[in-house]
Structures are given as structure tokens and as C-alpha cells.
């Protein structure tokens, strides 16, 4: 693979936070954003606004929640996390159109883009009642 093929493949497989925000704002019904992060709820209190939360470990059992007629955007923690890439591959094998959000939620938060605080929506329980 030469450099041009590499960069074209990368652009086909990923979407930047800026591009996603712009495209989803102009065509909100075209995209289905999924937070695929694994891990305990207390470390996942923030999610990208309007994201569907389907952790990678639950994906197999929740495929019926993911529409085939939309472009699926998946994200995980950061550039060092490959969970979103694993999910993208899994979904592509099943006929979905998928891209990975580059930089994950870390890049999204760094840019001060809209997030949802799940603790305020009572979607996360405080089991220690701290």
C-alpha cells in the first residue's frame, strides 16, 4: 500500500469530530452515533450528546438496535483505544456502513463539543451513595 492508498483508506474509515458535528447538524437523520466503551459506569459519566450507548461487550445481543439504513459512527475512549475499531470491523462484516470517530470522546471533550452528563440524567447509579 502506498501513501495515497493509505490516506484514502484512512479517510474512508474515519471521521473527525469537526466533520461529524458539521454533518450531523445538517443531516441528523443520516447518522447513528454509538458509544461503544466498555468499563464500569462510574468512569463513563460523560458521553457525546445524543449518542446511543451500546458497549462493545453487549453489541452481539443488541444488533437489533442499530439501523442498517444509517451511517454508523462508533467511538471509544481515545486514540490509544481500539475498541471502536473492533466494533467497526464487526459491523462492517454484517453489512453496516461504519466509520470510527477519530480521537474518541477525549478529542470530543477537548474541543468542548456537546456532551451529556449521565449522572444528571439518572442513567448512572451512585452505588456508594457518595
Automatic annotation (TrEMBL):
SUPFAM superfamilies: Rhodanese/Cell cycle control phosphatase
Domain Rhodanese: 27-117
Originating species: Siminovitchia terrae
A Pfam family the protein falls into: Rhodanese
Domain of life: Bacteria
UniProt name for this protein: Rhodanese-like domain-containing protein
Cited InterPro entries: GlpE_sulfurtransferase, Rhodanese-like_dom, Rhodanese-like_dom_sf
CDD domains listed in its UniProt record: RHOD
Amino acid at each position: 500500500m502506498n501513501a495515497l492508498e493509505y490516506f484514502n483508506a484512512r479517510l474512508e474509515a474515519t471521521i473527525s469530530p469537526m466533520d461529524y458535528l458539521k454533518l450531523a447538524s445538517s443531516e441528523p437523520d443520516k447518522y447513528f452515533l454509538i458509544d461503544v466503551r466498555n468499563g464500569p459506569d462510574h468512569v463513563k459519566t460523560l458521553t457525546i450528546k445524543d449518542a446511543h450507548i451500546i458497549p462493545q461487550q453487549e453489541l452481539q445481543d443488541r444488533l437489533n438496535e442499530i439501523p442498517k439504513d444509517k451511517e454508523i459512527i462508533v467511538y471509544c475512549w481515545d486514540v490509544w483505544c481500539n475498541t471502536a475499531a473492533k466494533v467497526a470491523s464487526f459491523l462492517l462484516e454484517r453489512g453496516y456502513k461504519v466509520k470510527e470517530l477519530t480521537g474518541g470522546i477525549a478529542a470530543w471533550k477537548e474541543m468542548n463539543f456537546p456532551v451529556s452528563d449521565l449522572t444528571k440524567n439518572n442513567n448512572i447509579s451512585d452505588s456508594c451513595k457518595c
